[in-house]
Each structure stands twice: as structure tokens, then as C-alpha cells.
Write a structure and sequence with these properties.
heterodimer, A: mainly alpha, MetI-like fold, 2 domains, 14 helices, B: alpha/beta, 11 helices, 30% helix, cell membrane (chain B)
């Protein structure tokens, strides 16, 4: 197992390098001269030249990339054009907000999705199955900005839930009452995931339940509950884990709308604001951090595969 | 000590599948019996209902299959009256089953040791450690080399023959009174087939088990069985002891089966297949189900379904030829045009 993890870690190195190259080229692919953009359109040529020199834009590309890589390794992601604060600090305060949101939403979707999927599979072609699948279809097709607004409309404004404050305030005030502020955004974000996981779990479970080894387990006198949760579920989880990993990754980059609706100051909003103001060091930074996180999540998915099925080897 | 004569008596078992297109009678009034310690072969072509019969015995049918009627008397008690919980105590403990496909019948994500241990933990209340020791013992019993190492391996690390041995170890872990082997050798190489059959026979003697051997292979029947039930289209058409069956088959279908088998004890010019195919359950003939393919069929056969007729050796045949209503040639040539010289 340790060998597997080490091998898998080594394999992520080229991916990470690829990510840094892409992020690095962002600066050069954006139309126009970065220095000019930073300095402002009406800035004198001398000032632009200064900035260019400071950013090292006059160096050959490979030297620039080398520096860029070196800076990343030491945690230096450059400076925000807008706030002049280090990008690492800008991201640092918001990173955990988004991660927390994504983690809670993933937990909610996995929990709801698995339960719904298993029930649907075990009771397939019954009314319960049909109802669950219709609800899942709704959950899947609902745009989450709309769902978020509706939740606010009915729960917050209707006073079922206390008014939401900003996510940051909630974090500052610590847990306690603060779970109430997380509920709605997490439901908003988790619904689609729960629906996808429910559908995936159902089809995967149905396939596994028809397998010969499930019949073998029953022929041994194993209780039906254990047949389902031990013999079937472990086999059925493999495709589900992939979906969970992808969902989590999508949440990291996809919380923008939800963050906007619920006035949460997370990575999504940071990225959008940075794009709007052409604050490309921040854009680079957020893209880099989200990509790294995505790579890490995929690593976890692969490791859990291996844990679920010892046969899975790396080619 | 006990009042039952046969360990298993099946009476008029009916199993149907209720599909959107209506009821499909997969097993239609099957009866047979199995004395303790003996082996019963259930033979028939694909689709004859033999596997469904086996699954019905343990009530392992999945939807939309359902047992409609009949009795399954195991040690004198009707299993169809048992609750699901009582049935669970029977499965893997009193009656075990092994399946055709050793490659897919073991759970890929658990070690073979765990899978053998499971029934021991359920039925004999052993703890994990005791169950593992017993599992190693079972692996040794079924002839798997270095069982201490194998016990921690996953099914994909074993060959097909090994896996079938593991299946047997699993089935026999709790010392069952009866083993149902559903085509245990069909998916295996010929050399491995013989080994597995020998193993089952050897363990049967050692553990004093009764065995139901489900197969389409008359060679397997000749080698392992004491009694044979020949199934055709969901019914038993001939129930006989194995000697009489091979010496003097009575039902035209059995005769056909034997003729399509190469033999070295008699002279044969060429093998003769049975013409036609098994009728689909949706278009069952009104009369004898074999009549469309039977060389001796008359209007009587096509018009009415024959009942089971018991002959002087207490063997049973479902065929009009042996009834009093048969008014055709009593020496009707059920062996077809070229009668095989008896050896």
C-alpha cells in the first residue's frame, strides 16, 4: 500500500508541472501587455518599463518560468495588482472558506446520495424507487443559483432560518449557532451532487446485486442487510468514489454563484473579482491553488480505489 | 432417531417467473427424492429448469421468480413453511450450494479466508480467529497447497480450479447434510473437472453428505450419481437409478440424450442429435412437451400431457408409451431408425 501511494505521488509530479506551465502561460496568453495592464492604460512608458523590469518580463521565457516555479515552491505567488497585498495572503483567508463549504457539501451529497441510491436499488421498480429518482432528477436539473435564491426566499426571509450573515462572520464567531449559516449554502451546493451520487449508486448497486457472488453470499445464509452493505456496497462504491472526487473538484471551482448569492467571501468570488479587474497574479494564484487541490483529491480517489479493490493496480 | 426416510423429498414443485408478458412456468410440477448419503443427478438441456429447481430448494430465486406451490421436505420438514430467518439458518449450514462460475461466484473485494470464515461466524458462532483457523483447515481439506498463505489472498490471485475448490471449502465449512452442486465443472478445463468431481465424491464419503448434482453432462452423471432425474421443459420426464438409466433408458428424450453422446462400449456410426429445440415457455405444447421432437409421438402424445408412470423398478417415466392408454405398437421403436446394438 505504501509503495502504491509513493508511486502514485511520483506520478503527480508531471501533472503538477503541467499545471504550473499552464498557469504561467496565462500571463502571456492574456491579450495585451501585462505590464501595461498593471500600470494602467494611460501610464507613461517609463513606468510600464519599470514594472516590466520588476516582473522580470524582459527575461527569456524559460528564465521567467524558472523564477515563477521557484517562487511557487517558496509560497510566493506574487502581489495583487488591486490591493498590493501578497496573493498568498489574499488566497489564504478565503481558501479555507471555500474548502470548508466544499467539504460540507460533499459530505451532505455523499450521505444523502448513498442512502437514496441504496434504497432505490434495493427497492427497485417500486413506488419509492420512482419517487427517489424523480426527486434526484429535479435535484440534478435545478440550477444552483435558482435553488439558492428559492431557499433564501422561503427559509431566510420566511424566517424559518435566521438571517444569514456573511460566511466570514460566522467563521469569526466560531461554531455554536453558526451551523445555521452554513445550512442553506451547503444544501444549495450539495443538492446536485447528491442527485448524481444517488443515480450512480443506484445503477452501480443494481449491477452488483445481480452478480453471482451476491447469490453466493445469500446461499451462505448471510443476512440480507449484510449482503447489501458488506458484499454489494463495497463493490458498488468504486464508480461512486470517482464521481465524488469529480464532484468535490467541481465544487472547488464552482462555488462562485453560491458564494455570490450568500455573500460568502470565498475563492470563487476572489477569482471572479480578480478576472474582472484583470488582477492576473491573483487569477494565476487561485487557478494554481484550485488545480493543486484537484490533483490532490484525485490522488485520494485513486488511493481509496485501491483500498476498495486490491486488484486495482497502476499501469 | 428420525422419522424421515429420504433426506430430501420434492413434491410437485412449481416455480414461475411473473414477467410483463405473463407467467413463465420454469419449473412445472417437479418431484424427486434423495436418500441420505446418496447422489442425485439432475440432467437436462439449457432452459430445462434444472438450475431454477436448485435455486428453489434454497429459496434463492430473485424477482420476478416465485415458488407457486409444492413441497420441499428436507429431513421431513417442509422448507416452504419456513420463515426467511429460518431459511437463512438452513442455507450454508444444513444445505450448501456451489455454482457454475467459480470466476464470478466469489466476491472480488474480500479475501477467500474471509469468505469461508463468514459462514462459520454466522452458523457456528466462531470468532474471527477461530474461523480463520477453520478456514485454513478447510482449504487444506479441499487440496489447496500452502493454505496459510492462500487464506489471505483475493479471488483474482487464484486460478479457476482453485476458486472452485474455495467454493467447495466455503460450502462444506459448516458440515452440511446436503450439497447442491449447480454445474460445478462446466466452466473448468477437462483435467480440472475430473479433479473437482473426485474431490466432491471423496468429501461426500468423508462427511456423509447427500449431493444433488446439476449438470447437462451425462458423463458426470454416470461417474458420480446414484439416481438421476432427467428434466425437460420444466418437468421431470424420467426418474431412475443410474444403472437402469444407462442400461435401458425409457423416455424417448433420455434415449435421444444418450444417443447424442459418444460411447466407447458400443458401436456407433455417428452421433445422432435430437432434432429441434426445447420449446419456449410461452409456446408450450398442450400435450407431452417432448412430442414435437419425439420420433414415436402420436396424436395421444400431442393431445394430452402424460402423467408420471411408475415401473416395476420403482422408476418413474412421463411418457404415454408406458401407460395402459397406449394403443400403438407396444414394441414401438423409441430408438429411432437405427437401433443401437446393446452392448
Amino acid at each position: 500500500m505504501t509503495k502504491f501511494i509513493i508511486r502514485r505521488l511520483i506520478q503527480t509530479i508531471p501533472v503538477l508541472l503541467g499545471v504550473t506551465i499552464l498557469v504561467f502561460s496565462l500571463m502571456h496568453l492574456i491579450p495585451g501587455d501585462p505590464a501595461q495592464i498593471i500600470a494602467g492604460e494611460s501610464a507613461p512608458e517609463r513606468q510600464v518599463e519599470q514594472i516590466r523590469e520588476r516582473l522580470g518580463l524582459n527575461d527569456p521565457l524559460h528564465v521567467q518560468y524558472g523564477k515563477f516555479l521557484g517562487n511557487i515552491v517558496t509560497g510566493d505567488l506574487g502581489q495583487s495588482v488591486r490591493s498590493s497585498r501578497p496573493v498568498a495572503d489574499e488566497i489564504g483567508t478565503r481558501f479555507w472558506v471555500t474548502v470548508e463549504l466544499a467539504v460540507y457539501s460533499t459530505i451532505v451529497s455523499v450521505f444523502l446520495g448513498l442512502i437514496a441510491g441504496i434504497i432505490s436499488a434495493v427497492r427497485h421498480y417500486t413506488v419509492l424507487d420512482v419517487v427517489i429518482m424523480i426527486v434526484a432528477l429535479f435535484g440534478l436539473s435545478m440550477p444552483n443559483f435558482w435553488l439558492g435564491l428559492m431557499l433564501i426566499q422561503y427559509f431566510s426571509i420566511g424566517n424559518w432560518m435566521p438571517d444569514w450573515m456573511s460566511f466570514m462572520q460566522m467563521r469569526a464567531s466560531g461554531w455554536g449557532d453558526s451551523w445555521k449559516q452554513v445550512v442553506l449554502p451547503v444544501i444549495t451546493l450539495g443538492t446536485a451532487g447528491a442527485a448524481i451520487i444517488a443515480r450512480m449508486t443506484r445503477s452501480s448497486m443494481l449491477e452488483v446485486i445481480g452478480q453471482d457472488y451476491i447469490r453466493t453470499a445469500r446461499a451462505k445464509g448471510v443476512k440480507e442487510r449484510i449482503v447489501i452493505y458488506r458484499h454489494a456496497l463495497k463493490n458498488a462504491l468504486i464508480p461512486v468514489v470517482t464521481v465524488v472526487g469529480l464532484e468535490f473538484g467541481a465544487l472547488l471551482g464552482g462555488t462562485v454563484l453560491t458564494e455570490t448569492i450568500f455573500a460568502i467571501n470565498g475563492m470563487g468570488r476572489l477569482t471572479i473579482d480578480a478576472i474582472r479587474t484583470r488582477d492576473f497574479p491573483v487569477v494565476q494564484g487561485t487557478v494554481l491553488v484550485i488545480s493543486l487541490l484537484f490533483v490532490f483529491v484525485n490522488l485520494l480517489v485513486d488511493i481509496s480505489y485501491r483500498f476498495l479493490n486490491k486488484r486495482i493496480e497502476l499501469d | 432417531m428420525s422419522t424421515y426416510k429420504n433426506i430430501l423429498e420434492v413434491r410437485n414443485l412449481q416455480t414461475s417467473f411473473f414477467t410483463d408478458d405473463g407467467e413463465v412456468k420454469a419449473v412445472d410440477g417437479v418431484s424427486f427424492e434423495l436418500p441420505k448419503g446418496k447422489t442425485l443427478g439432475v440432467v437436462g438441456e439449457s432452459g430445462s429448469g434444472k438450475s431454477i429447481t436448485a435455486l428453489s430448494l434454497l429459496q434463492l430465486l430473485s424477482k420476478p421468480g416465485k415458488i407457486k406451490g409444492g413441497e420441499i421436505l428436507f429431513k421431513g420438514k417442509n422448507l416452504l413453511d419456513y420463515t426467511e430467518k429460518q431459511m437463512r439458518e438452513i442455507r450454508g449450514n444444513d444445505i450448501s450450494m456451489i455454482f457454475q462460475e467459480p470466476m464470478t461466484s466469489l466476491n472480488p473485494v474480500y479475501t477467500v479466508g474471509y469468505q469461508i470464515s463468514e459462514s462459520l461466524m454466522i452458523h457456528q458462532n466462531l470468532n474471527k480467529r477461530e474461523a480463520k483457523l477453520k478456514s485454513i483447515e478447510m482449504l487444506k481439506l479441499v487440496g489447496i497447497p500452502s493454505p496459510e498463505k492462500r487464506v489471505d489472498q483475493y479471488p483474482f490471485e487464484l486460478s479457476g480450479g482453485m476458486r472452485q475448490r474455495v467454493m467447495i471449502a466455503m460450502a462444506l465449512a459448516c458440515n452440511p447434510d446436503m450439497l447442491i452442486a449447480d454445474e460445478p465443472t462446466t466452466a473448468l478445463d477437462v483435467t480440472i473437472q475430473a479433479q473437482i468431481l473426485d474431490l466432491i465424491r471423496e468429501l461426500q464419503a468423508k462427511l456423509d453428505m447427500s449431493v444433488i448434482m446439476i449438470t447437462h453432462d451425462l458423463g458426470v452423471v454416470a461417474e458420480t450419481c446414484d439416481y438421476v432425474a432427467v428434466m425437460y421443459a420444466g418437468q421431470v420426464v424420467e426418474f431412475s437409478d443410474v444403472r437402469s438409466l444407462f442400461k435401458k433408458p425409457k423416455h424417448p428424450y433420455t434415449v435421444g440424450l444418450l444417443k447424442s453422446l459418444p460411447r466407447h462400449d458400443i458401436e456407433q456410426e455417428k452421433l445422432q442429435p435430437i432434432k429441434g429445440t426445447v420449446p419456449s415457455p410461452k409456446e408450450m405444447p398442450v400435450g407431452c412437451r417432448f412430442s414435437p421432437r419425439c420420433p414415436a409421438a402420436t396424436d395421444l402424445c400431442r393431445g394430452r400431457m402424460p402423467g408420471l408412470i411408475t415401473d416395476e423398478q420403482k422408476n418413474e417415466i412421463r411418457c404415454w408409451i408406458y401407460s395402459e392408454e397406449w394403443d400403438g405398437d407396444p414394441e414401438v421403436n423409441i430408438y429411432g431408425e437405427e437401433r443401437i446394438a446393446e452392448g
